[in-house]
Amino acid sequence: MRLHRLELTAFGPYPKPESVDFDELGADGLFLLHGDTGAGKTTLLDAVAFALFGRVPGARGDVKKLRCEYADPEVPTEVSLELTVQSRRFRIVRSPEFDRPKKRGGGFTTQPAKCSLTWLEGWDGEGITRIDDVARAVEDMLGMSYEQFFQVVLLPQGEFAKFLRSDTAEREVLLEKLFGTERFLDVEKWFRDRRVIAGRVLEERRQGAAKLVHRVAEAASEEPSDEPGWLESVLERLSAAVAEAEALSEETAGVADGADALLAQARVQADQLRRVREARELLDRVEAADSASWFAERDAARRAIPVVPAHGEIAKLQQSYEFALRDETRAAEVLARLGYEGTELREDAERHREEAGGLGELAAEAERQQADVRKLSVLKNSSHQVERRLLALNAELEVLPERLARCRAQLDAAVEASGRLESLKVRADAAEALPGATRALERTKNELHQAIDVHQKAKDVLQQVRHQRLENMAIELAAALKSGKPCAVCGSPSHPAPAQPMLGGVDASDEEEAARDEQAALERRTEAERAAHAAELRIQACWEALGSAEPAVALAEHRTALDLARTRSQRQTEFVGLEAKTRDLGAEKGKVEQDLVGLRTEHTSLVAVVEERAARLDKARGEHEDVLTRRDHLLKLAKALVDLADRRTARDSALARVREQQASVAALATEAGFPDVAAALAAHRPAIKLEALDDRIAQWERARASALATLEELAEVDPEAEVDLNEVTAQASAARTAASAAQTRLARAQAALERVSELAARLRAERRSLEPLEATYAELDALTDVINGRGQNSKKMTLRSYVLAARLEEVAVAASARLHRMSQGRYSFVHSDTAGARGTRGGLSLDVLDDYSGRSRPAKTLSGGESFLASLSLALGLADVVANETGGALLDTLFVDEGFGTLDSDTLDIVMNTLDELRAGGRVVGLVSHVEELRQRIPTRLRVRKARTGSTLEVSLG
Question: Model pTM?
């Protein structure tokens, strides 16, 4: 990986655009980055980190604010880095999230982060604009992660100086940070978690087997035991108990069957005695009953049945008579309220009807009078409504001219915009095409530069081939000489010493091939020139179309005109509608005025007619309110007279029917054999009581017949005999109880044997399935102890410590070679993986072997300059190890930060020689230091100047 150019704007302490040309700085392979404290030296390295990974190293990475506080609010924060990785040259442009002023209104808005990757050489793919895609592409090409990159590019001697002075625990923390061995810690935890889970599963299975043992013991009613053969002995004892219970059950069942037969016979004898005794008792009760009175009562009740409903009809007729009498009274009251005092009801009714008929014609006029009065009210209301409508029309007609003028102005503006739309669209199209044309021009210029470089190289190759051919032309001419033929140069037929062919020489075919390559490159160059010229013409055409207008202004004018033109149809429709509305409202106003005149005329004529008719009707109404009221009174009086006459006729008819029904009921009672109606009603029984009397007589007859039948059937049974049923029942119950107990004992024994057999089979299967789990857990337990530094692990090193020790050993080997050379053969690193004192973990011991004394001593005993040499050696060794492990890109650019002030002059010479070795093979090494002597030793310098308004960069090439 080689850095070419770094550009940053409003980043860190740099408010204005600054650029670093690493190709220029690294031409000699070594340059110095210096400046005052806090000026922003480390910020340049942060900018490289941010461009590649979107973050900065160390504690500064926890602070997301990367924007310069001194920068103009309108200037965006941006970092651009151009570099080559694995023969691919590309440019990364990245901006962090920052706040910028709002384009409209006050305040700020958050500008989101963005990133882009553009390929420049060595790759034909398209550029990348998504942040995640850029991150993946960078990591894939570098072959290392963010943390590894800063371990090998920005050599952290400070971390290793701390490492040299640390104890084992602190050293382990620092190594984890440098090597990133968290995944091995996850492996250790994974094994511990797996062991816990496996142990939990195994314990659950063990508890399941123990529960089965207890269930077997519970089913067999024995104590559980882990002794061998216990399960088989339990099964044998249960089988013997089942056989014993079967024999006892058969014996007791036979005894119980004999006792049941004797009990059945005794029960038959006892039932016969009970039936005879009950029949005698029933017959005695039947003979003692008063059955004759029951029969007499039933006969009288049946004879009284026809009399009762006829007597009930008298009550209905009497009620009808009372209703007729009440209706007569009410009709008389109605007639009295109407003021009638006569006696000839029907004659007076006829006279009143005739008088009401004479008022019929005037009644029709009275109805017309009422209708005309209502019509006058309607005409008055209609006039008021028409007057209000006329006022509304006048108000609306007053505002229409102003609305017509405003709509006309809007329509004219839309028409004018439609006329300008075509010319404005040409300018807007040019404004939209301008950014794409600008990007196309940049792309074609880049392609032209590449084509020029390729053509120039091909041209140089052609000239070189031609030069070599001219130098070797004697050889080419000698190859064409023939014996006896004159030389084309001197004309001599003899050729004593022709030139001989040389290895690597060129001939005409080589020159032709080089000429073809040069011509092809020239054609590509010409094509690229044409494309660049065409791109320039497109940009020129865009600006010619825009004229003096800015692209944003042209786009805004086109959008405004387009919006106006789109409203043209709407404005035209609105204008036509307003004109039509004006005409319609004018026509409606004329009609409303005509309607108002007609309503007023009709109202005046109708008032005269109503007043004339009212005088005539007042004379005919008499003492009543009006003619209709008087006519209604006469009709109601005639109707009331007729109604009272009808009610009196109905009363007389109802009284006659009552007297006729009373005579009929007396005749029915005499025919039924009763002395009078009262006797017949006394003999009557309700249907339910009569039915109950029939049931009592039927029950008496059935009981007498049943008792006689039973006594006849069991005539040979002596009612005085006795049967001791309790003793026989007790004997049979005892025998059955004994048989049931024996059967229950057998069922329990069989159930216990079946249950224990089932549980025994499950227990055997569970024990067989536990065997592989026990073996697997034992293996996992031992392996987990080894990985976590216990058990059979003699070194007491965890997996993470083992990996750290192996990495440290590799770094120590690589660092020893550099330390040995920088210390002039005196010092080298010694690594040990032995366990520490008192059982502490080992593997991370790193001492320094002093060749002067031949003994190892702790690294913390080194002086300041020696510590710098040791930490620099470790840093360089780490860079080599990480680069080799990751298989990443070759690192052609390295930065070494501080520590040179602790070195004497001779040691500084050795360190500088080591750094000279680093830049061998084209590497570029940047030193970050305040040491004044380095400024004298390193002519190429990049100085950071600090000021109150921000920092700036200054390049010195010596």
Answer: 0.41
